[in-house]
Structures
1.
Amino acid sequence: MADMNYDVLVIGGGPGGYVAAIRAAQLGLSTAVVERENLGGICLNWGCIPTKALLRSAEVLRNAKHAAEYGLVIQNPSFDLDKVVQRSRKVAGQLNGGVKHLLKKNKVAVIEGDAKLLGKGQVAVTKNGAAVGTFGAKNIIIATGARARTLPGLEDDGKLVWTYRKAMTPNTTPKSLLVIGSGAIGIEFASFYNELGAKVTVVEVMDRILPVEDEEISTFARKQFEKQGMGIITAAKAGNLRKGADNVTVAVEANGKTEDITVDRVILAVGIAPNTENLGLENTKVQTDRGHIKTNQWCQTEEPGVYAIGDVTGAPWLAHKASHEGVIAAEHIAGKHPHPLDVRNIPGCTYSHPQIASVGLTEKKAKEAGYDVRVGRFPFIGNGKAIALGEADGMVKTVFDAKTGELLGAHMVGAEVTELIQGYTVAKTMETTEKELMETVFPHPTLSEMMHESVLDAYGRAIHF
Ligand SMILES: Cc1cc2nc3c(=O)[nH]c(=O)nc-3n(C[C@H](O)[C@H](O)[C@H](O)COP(=O)(O)OP(=O)(O)OC[C@H]3O[C@@H](n4cnc5c(N)ncnc54)[C@H](O)[C@@H]3O)c2cc1C
């Protein structure tokens, strides 16, 4: 006998789970969320938000260091690491409280504890090993997310070798730091610590940093990071970690040679692992692929009435993808006809300095997919607002289908591009062509004018470059 029955029981209160729960409640379904740690999940507590708070502190510090370029006098700008971290934790705490409030407002029940599927629409919840109860649900949404991946020989210890949780709550600034992995998470931490004055080296196994981004963009970003003093070693393998009392030596193999690098701390940013253990999947027909739960376009698993969304279902591991899937799952449960998610229209952002943002196909991927492409580029140096801001390093690249004029992809590096990318995302979602983009009026002076110019450039019509 279940202690309580719901129309929808969501396991995990991250941006996938809490959004799914609110949407389900909006649609009149009785809904509960089970969360074992913090509402808001990794995103609000240990991911997207606290890292952006840290990066904002780094940005303010950088601006203060460059004050003289703006005619301002700020002597010896410095930082208090504890206060930087405290601010980041406070921001996370504020948003965690906000999610609590939203769930209450929408009459979503919150059950604290660890959920386990028992099969046949039953879920057992325990807290610290003690039973909280058994709950019945017509529909279950698994939104258990993911955690930092470690590799054999590359395990974190929370002291000398960090993953993201420790990396965002340091008690001292390392003088030297090795970041293993150059995806968005690795690059954001590299950028943060570099700004705080650490000697940062990034090691990437692929032949370029930010490997999912357009090649030109990652080359551009690499040059900027190197100009800021960051060391970057690509096509390289890190291994053989040897720990000293207060440092770590890592063997880095590149170009057929192995070099020992000794640093104060190491950050592992080598991907994430889905949270599927001890979830009771064996009591269901739910299938996994390399640990990630397999779903169809409506986020349904193989087990009738069981859905899965967000990081636990695989790439791209992004909060907005998780939330969007949450809405799709809730609406499908409610018998609505949601629009399936098109992965080509999901933007991706890296909030380093410079920022990187993109949506859709890279030039290479578009060519591999058989498109005859037209490519437009526009540099930040050609934009009045960028120069006025003192942010003249960057570029905007657009990729079009030469036959139809459809926008296939947009790729940017430079100041505020993470805010700009949404313009192209709307355009792409609406299957816009170059014609509409050229006819769109962009306000002056803004960085967004470069988005217009990049489109014009693809058709040989750029005005300001
Ligand atoms: C350092 C870092 C920076 C990031 N920055 C960005 C960014 O800028 N933009 C972006 O889009 N994404 C970013 N991400 C990724 C983003 O955090 C994830 O994509 C997002 O949190 C996934 O949401 P989710 O709901 O699928 O899972 P999660 O946020 O992981 O939430 C899952 C929740 O389920 C709970 N849970 C797990 N198992 C159980 C169980 N058995 N019972 C009860 N509860 C359970 C967990 O405690 C957790 O709260 C970042 C990630 C990291 C680590």
Note: The chain has a mean pLDDT of 97.
2.
Amino acid sequence: MRTDQDKVIAITGASSGIGEATARLLAGRGARLVLGARREDRLNAVVDGIMARGGTAVGVVVDVTRRADLRRLTDTALERYGRLDVLVSNAGTMAVSPFDELRQDDWDAMVATHVTGLLNGIGAALPVFRRQGTGHFVNVSSTAARVVKSPQAVYAATKAAVHVISEGLRQESGPGLRVTVVSPGFTHTEGVGKGASPEAAAAMTRMRDEIAMPPSAVASAIGYAIDQPAGVDVGEIVVRPTAQA
Ligand SMILES: NC(=O)c1ccc[n+]([C@@H]2O[C@H](COP(=O)([O-])OP(=O)(O)OC[C@H]3O[C@@H](n4cnc5c(N)ncnc54)[C@H](OP(=O)(O)O)[C@@H]3O)[C@@H](O)[C@H]2O)c1
């Protein structure tokens, strides 16, 4: 069994929030990381922080909506470390708004990031996992996937798609591969309300500031799933603040 000490783990959306917290946690356990996001300065800051603590990480500027970028992420893992054990598909955008505002670019971005982005990750990592005979997909969904609350319908639909895709992938995975969905509730990150319509953003940030859990709580859940022995697949973890209805 490979332990976190020698696992090679790629994480999308690692420049802030849950992805950053997950990178820090796993680096502290000795994993070798390949971190992807679009904001190079923020990504570099995360990589530098990990290296300063003696960890191992490399950053790759990645837009998950682009197939070639995900391939560069997995190629970097292979070139640097000779393998890829886990892909954490975490990149996301919560730019929610009422339908009447017709923010169709935001709708497209949520579909492109959560659905196409996830598929791009599967397309890049699955052949690697098949060649190795082992591999683990960890896909970040949301409690919003289960309870549709206006004005989050498009966001919720894309996160519901994460569950559907993950379940189909799990069924086709065979004995060597693992597929985990981690569904966080309100988490204290900069992404809450970012790009959302003003009213929705105000409601979300107010709620976040009142009840949200720290991103380290979600990182721990991801770490738990990764840390299970080979042959044990944690299918889903729902982790939410106790105060969340
Ligand atoms: N916070 C919550 O309450 C909550 C609850 C449930 C689920 N989630 C999910 O958790 C995940 C992480 O969100 P967060 O709360 O940690 O927010 P966050 O701090 O805004 O993190 C989002 C990350 O995704 C990256 N990203 C966004 N679009 C991308 C793209 N096209 N390509 C590559 N990277 C992209 C961002 O980096 P760049 O901008 O640098 O690319 C950032 O690193 C998301 O999937 C979100 O839907 C969050």
Note: DSSP finds seven helices and seven strands in the chain.
